[in-house]
Specification:
Elements lengths: L1 H34 L6 H23 L7 H5 L2 H36 L10 H5 L1 H23 L8 H8 L2
Length: 171
């Protein structure tokens, strides 16, 4: 149940960030060419929305098996070696994303203490930087899920089976 809610939230956030960035950019262009004035904060907001979208999109990529990977060596290996390589790579993914989430949270706490705000929007920068621990933490969780699935079943997430898998398992 938790994973289904998290999956849906992840998808809604990614789509919302993408839609908002598109709408803001479109409005800024229309305002510039039709109204003669642009929207001064549009570029900054679009950049922040794309950062948030990318962080959550990376976690989505791990969950669905579409995240970038170099599997030439893994696919060429014997089954016993392949299993070790897959587990090792997922463990490295867990360690890396967990480390980024941890230090990202420390960075957010530091930035909060400085009181910095963004140049155009004048939003607190710590809110913008929350993308780092939230996105990396979710990505770490997705690596743990994928690792648990692989250890239990020997299967990897596959985007080809996403329609079936996402509804059946609530991964």
């Amino acid at each position: 149940m938790f994973n289904r809610i998290l999956d849906r939230l992840e998808e809604v956030l990614i789509a919302s960030f993408m839609a908002a960035a598109t709408l803001v950019t479109f409005a800024a262009v229309v305002m510039r060419y039709v109204g003669g004035t642009g929207i001064s904060w549009a570029q900054e907001l679009t950049i922040y929305l794309f950062i948030w979208m990318a962080k959550f999109g990376a976690a989505y990529g791990v969950r669905t098996g579409i995240h970038i990977g170099v599997d030439f060596v893994v696919n060429a290996a014997r089954p016993s070696v392949k299993r070790v390589l897959v587990i090792l790579s997922m463990l490295l993914g867990v360690v890396f994303t967990g480390t980024i989430a941890f230090f990202g949270a420390r960075w957010v706490i530091f930035i909060y203490g400085t009181g910095q705000t963004s140049p155009d929007l004048e939003w607190p920068m710590w809110i913008i930087y929350l993308a780092i621990p939230f996105g990396s933490g979710l990505m770490c969780y997705r690596f743990i899920q994928a690792l648990a699935l692989f250890v239990k079943t020997g299967q990897l997430h596959s985007h080809a089976a996403l329609g079936e898998q996402g509804e059946e398992s609530g991964s």
